């Protein structure tokens, strides 16, 4: 009987955006939030599922959860429509993160692993000036 949870010490979680490869740190106003993960390990029993959630990012890792834990089955990606974020819509200047836990065949959960966060740019850039000539 496996009495140890999956090992998350080598796991990696990154924020994604459709049409891009790799980690995304800034993106436009989304219709969905998404992330990918890899390298959760378990020597005692197979990993059967992954749970993921979206939260406000803090350096301490204790930011408010915007979703409950969502069961992704054995998939290594997760996506949720923005409207599923407890009624919250991503705001400019706030960094959000994806958190993931692995669940083994014994039903034990790993420690959560968080992405480095993504900031949504929901407003256009400020206007500027163009100087043409010496005036």
From TrEMBL:
Domain of life, per lineage: Eukaryota
Entry protein name: Fibronectin type-III domain-containing protein
């Amino acid at each position: 009987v496996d009495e140890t949870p999956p090992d998350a010490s080598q796991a990696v979680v990154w924020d994604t955006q459709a049409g891009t490869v790799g980690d995304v740190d800034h993106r436009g106003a989304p219709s969905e939030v998404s992330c990918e993960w890899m390298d959760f390990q378990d020597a005692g029993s197979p990993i059967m599922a992954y749970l993921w959630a979206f939260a406000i990012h803090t350096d301490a890792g204790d930011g408010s959860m915007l979703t409950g834990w969502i069961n992704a089955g054995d998939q290594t990606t997760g996506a949720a429509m923005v409207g599923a974020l407890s009624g919250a819509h991503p705001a400019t200047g706030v960094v959000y993160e994806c958190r993931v836990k692995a669940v083994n065949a014994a039903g034990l959960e790993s420690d959560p692993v968080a992405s480095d966060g993504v900031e949504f740019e929901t407003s256009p850039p400020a206007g500027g000036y163009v100087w043409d000539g010496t005036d």
